[in-house]
Amino acid sequence: MSNSRIIPDFFIDQLLRKSKKDGFIESEVYFGSNQSSQIQIHNHEVTTYESSDTSGISFRGRISEQMGYSFSESFSDKSADFLITKARENCIALEEKERETLFEGQKNYPEVNNFSQALADKPIHFFSQLGLELEELILSRDSRIVAVDHLYISRNSGTELIRNTLGLHCLSSYNLLNLYVDCRCVSGTQTKNGYYLWAGRDPNQFNISEIADNVVERSVQKLGATAISSGKYPIILDSRAAADLLDSFCGIFSAETVHKGFSLLFGKINEKISSEILNIRDDSVFSRSLYSSPFDSEGVAGQSKALIENGILKSFLHNRKTAAVDHVFSTGNGFRSGYKGSINVSPTNLYVTEGQKEKAEMMRSMYSGLLITDLSGLHAGTNSISGDFSLSCEGFWVKTGVIDRPVDQIVVSGNFYSLLQSVLDISKDLYLLPPHDNGSIGSPSLFVEGLTISGE
Amino acid sequence: MLNRSTVERVLIAALTSGGDFSEIFYEETKTSGISAVNGIVEKATSGIDLGVGIRVLNGTSSIYVFSNDIREENLIRLAQEASAELYSAPQGISFLLSRRRDYAVRDYSVNPLAIRQDRKAELLRHSSNHAMNFSNLITQTSASYSDSERNIIIANSEGNYVTDRVLRARVAIQSVATLKQEKQTGYKAPGIVGGFERIEQLNLEEIASDASRIADTMVKAKPCPSGRFPVVIGNGFGGVIFHEACGHALEATSVGIKASVFTDMLGKKIASDIVTAIDDPTLDGEWGSYRIDDESVLPRRNLLIKNGILTGFLVDRLGGRRMNADPTGSGRRQSYRYAPTSRMSNTFIDSGKDTHDQIIADTELGIYAAKMGGGSVDPSTGEFNFAVTEAYMIRNGTIMEPVRGATLIGKGSEVLMNIDRVGNDLELEQGVCGSVSGNVPANVGQPTIRVSEMTVGGYEE
């Protein structure tokens, strides 16, 4: 998209002024805009091209003890009336005991680098061409590859601005390139599918040969997979699978979840909740991540904090409201999911810190067991409250410390809280998932004591 | 609101540098939402989504652009940019927007958006209290209410100019039961199309009790055993099994690019003889129904499987071009932010002849999956997984003790063949289906069915 939307400063000024006149004690405007281009490649053609330019405004304002929200994607006078009327109506409906208040801002915010001019300057067709070459490469890598079913390349960029009646003014911009590719391979009557995700900001690091190697390997290595007998086995969760699992359960560290009684970590600060070798951090500004948050959606500066340190629970993730309840400071984790959302608690770059060993070394010490590389159905097979999970998975049987054969059509079951306790070893292959709104979830591979496998 | 001459100019602009079909989708959706935890209303928001999506097709290539800057000069610029992406020449297509129709009907008395949020809050408080008072094991509840009024215009270079307005509302209640360190949840989320009076007709007390009953039962349950068992799947939301394991693989989204296990299987046997399956967006007043699809094709009842034989796919315009087939009125999208693609509506396995009780009585040892949670599927392999939210052991033809934490996995093609009993108690239940064109309301459904053998993942040690 050629020209991005301009910040509607006039509309924002008008809205904040009007809200004061209409009886709001304090009020705030959050503006978000996003530009994206996406291409899909299939069968040697760019089959779809999508491009967008959208923006919207969220208004929140406090009347007596309650903070009402509203949003709009149109910036007309009529919309301003709508935003104020609806926010007021929402204030009346609310009965929160803990008061949500606005923040005047801080003197200093961390420097971040979420934007690459080089990426912004590349025409999207540069990536179409690379995508077409990538499809060719994948198809020619291995005779068992029959199709590249999905190949998407997208570039997103955006701006967010927060302004309020206390003088807060926070502005930041980002852009990012994402790739999703999967390929299908066939051997005999068996069909297998593997996917690969890539995210980056430097167009020169978009290495199609490496991407092809990765997706081909992730697909063909599954051929010949069979189930194993049901039973309890020692497990190594490969870094990507471990990160996916952590992503599903990291809500337990949110003070909001804890306060509502939906996390079993309630009352466990400074208690041992995991294996001593386990450390989990949330770093708003993390050099290895593709996205750092200089401030959260309340204007609180990004911070680095330990959640679990040598097995001890050190802190929850807080926004301003939950921090007030616990008599601590906000950890800078008060985020909205865009202009349609209200302030919640969300992680930034939340990850398990690396151990000392190579994954291969860890497999040797496991000797025999299961290496799980792919977990499916995480949105359904996990109970975020009890910590129970029961997930369809794929991976490899490890025999005498090395990969023996691929395994599929099995279910791994366990409990996330127990799993934290049963981590035996951690490798040094930290994998960060492509960034979500405020950062990346990541983990190295984890060697854990027995988990239950349902198979044959 | 866009006026018709703007729409016409944008459609023409979208064909300036090639393209054989152009379409504009305008949407203005008002929404409101409110939620309560433990009966205390803690979040309330209201909003307006407003934007336009412009699509240009050329053969099987598709260009889609969207924006919420709906000034005519911006839309024309976007349309021209979209067309330029085709690197082709204009095809001299001319049209008049003569096929005009307004599909909006007055199917409601009270627009949910006109009801004040504090009145909706009262519903949530009442339901939450009811859920909390179900038993002393219920320790938390969360309840939410959301509604929307979606106003759309769809026009295209075939001369269609259609408008529609759809009202929806949904209530969700989740109960948490606690027993020592164990926590289990129960969840119910009925949805309606139409006016607020249909929300008031819902028996929210019963719905809240049911959510609590599931949580209360499951927290006392033992872990589910692992292994291969006959599985009886309950009616209603049990239909998610068909939705995931088969429905998605029948969408042109995967069939059109030959990425589905059912590609080239039309007329072939893909399920046991007692299975007949239907997708029907024309059912009156149902959650997954619509009067016109999101690319202005009239919906119709689609017979997918008849007595085990594959008889049809779900096809959108672009998918139809890839498959050489007519669209089936299955083009749907969450909003103007998505190009439409083939999606399910109200999808169900049709009623058979057995009763629920007979099916249980004829099962010596197995799992009764009374309520299903969500799941996912890989359409290219047909491999799926589902969570079971309420399950029991069946022993000697009787439903016995509850078991928790069960997951069902398998391959769609195998499970369809292994359905050996189909009950006569068809029911539909509301869900939200997520796929490439976003989240759309969809009903899943089935009578009680039995699968002769499935892998059940539990964690009994």
Written overview of the protein:
The complex is a heterodimer of chains A (about 450) and B (about 450). Chain A is of the alpha+beta class and about 450 residues long. Chain A folds into two domains: about 10-220, PmbA/TldD fold (2-Layer Sandwich), CATH 3.30.2290; about 230-455, no CATH class. Chain A has helices at about 10-20, 75-95, 115-120, 125-140, 210-220, 240-250, 255-260, 320-325, 360-365, 415-420; strands at about 25-40, 45-65, 65-70, 145-165, 170-185, 190-200, 230-235, 280-285, 305-310, 310-315, 335, 345, 350, 370-375, 390-400, 400-415, 425, 430, 440-445, 445-455. In chain A, the strands form four sheets. Chain A has a six-stranded antiparallel β-sheet with strand order 3-2-1-4-5-6. In chain A, a hairpin with a 4-residue loop joins strand 4 and strand 5. The termini of chain A are far apart. The mean pLDDT of chain A is about 95. The longest helix of chain B has 16 residues, at about 115-130. Chain B has about 450 residues and is of the alpha+beta class. Chain B folds into two domains: about 5-220, PmbA/TldD superfamily (PmbA/TldD fold); about 225-455, no CATH class. Helices cover about 20% and strands about 40% of the residues of chain B. In chain B, strands 1, 2, 3, 4, 5, 6, 7 and 8 form an eight-stranded mixed β-sheet that branches. In chain B, strands 13-12-11-16-23-22 form a six-stranded mixed β-sheet, covered by helices on one side. Chain B has a five-stranded mixed beta barrel with strand order 10-17-18-20-24. Chain B has helices spanning about 5-15, 70-85, 115-130, 195-200, 205-220, 240-245, 250-255, 315-325, 355-360, 410-415, and strands at about 20-35, 40-60, 60-65, 100, 140-155, 160-180, 180-190, 190-195, 220-225, 225-235, 275-280, 300-305, 310, 330, 340, 345-350, 365-380, 385-395, 400-405, 405-410, 420, 425-435, 440-445, 450-455. The model of chain B has no long low-confidence stretch (mean pLDDT about 95). In chain B, a hairpin with a 2-residue loop joins strand 6 (about 160-180) and strand 7. At the A-B interface, strand 2, strand 3, helix 2, strand 4 and strand 6 of A face strand 1, strand 2, strand 3, helix 2 and helix 3 of B. Strand 2 (about 45-65) of chain A pairs parallel with strand 3 of chain B.
